[in-house]
Specification:
2 helices, 19 strands, four-stranded antiparallel beta sheet, single chain, 5% helix, mainly beta
Length: 259
Amino acid sequence: SFRFFTENGVGADAEILINKIEAKNNKTKLNKILSSTILNNPIVVQRATDNPFTPKYSYVELNNSNSNAKELIEILPDEFEYDIEVRFNPNGNTSNYNDFVYHDSKVNAGVEIELPLFISAEGLTMLDTLDFSLADAKSLDNIEKAMFRIIASNTFPFDASLQLYFVDKNNDILDSLFMADNRIMPGEIQEPGNKVMLAKITRIPEIVGASKMDNISYAEKIIIKAVFNTIPKDRKLKIYSDYKLNVKLVADFTYKTSF
C-alpha cells in the first residue's frame, strides 16, 4: 500500500493535484504509472497555523482496493517520478486577509510505501563477515583457556541458532565456536500492531582450550552464521524493515604465570 502525504507550511489552504506518479526499475527498464480514482480530484490540505507556527499534514491511502499499488511494487522500483501541482487559496480570500508565509515555510509531498512481508522460516540462513584480530592481545602463548560469550540481541520474531567461524586471510576456516543447537530467543510480539517492540537478549558461553585458542590466534575475520526458524514452523509472521540481530563477542582469558 502507498500513503501519499503532504505537508503545508504556508498559512493558506492548498490543493495538491497529482498528475502522475511513475515507478521505475532502472536495471530491468520496467516502469509503471500509478492509477487510482482518488487521484482524479485535488487533495485538500489545510493551512498552517500560527502562534506557535505548526504545519498541517494530509494523508491519502492508496491500496489494492482503490489503486494499482501492487503492480507498482511488483517491478521492484528504485526510482519514483512525480508530476504534482500545488495550488494555494483555491477558493480565494476565505481568511479575511490573515494568510501568512515565513522564510522557513515549505510544502513537502512524498510517498510512504508498506510492503507487508508475511513468512514462516525454516532454515533461513544469514551470513555476515567481520574483521577480527587478537594481534594486540598480550601473552597469547600463556593462555590456558578462554571463556567466550555471545551476547545476541534479537528483534526478529524467529528463533535462531548461531555458528561462528574463524578464518584466515584466504578465508580458510581455522576453527569455530558455538554449535548450531544454541538457541537465540525470538523477539516478543506485542499488541497493538503485532510487532516486536523490544529486543530479546540471549547470552551463550563456551569454554575454549589452549589448542583452539592457538587456531583462533591466526584468524583475521569471523563469519557469523545465523539460522532462523519459526516456532511453530507453519506460523506466518509479519517482518518489518527495522528488525535485526545484533551479535557481540566478548572473552575472558585464563593465563598461565610463574613466579
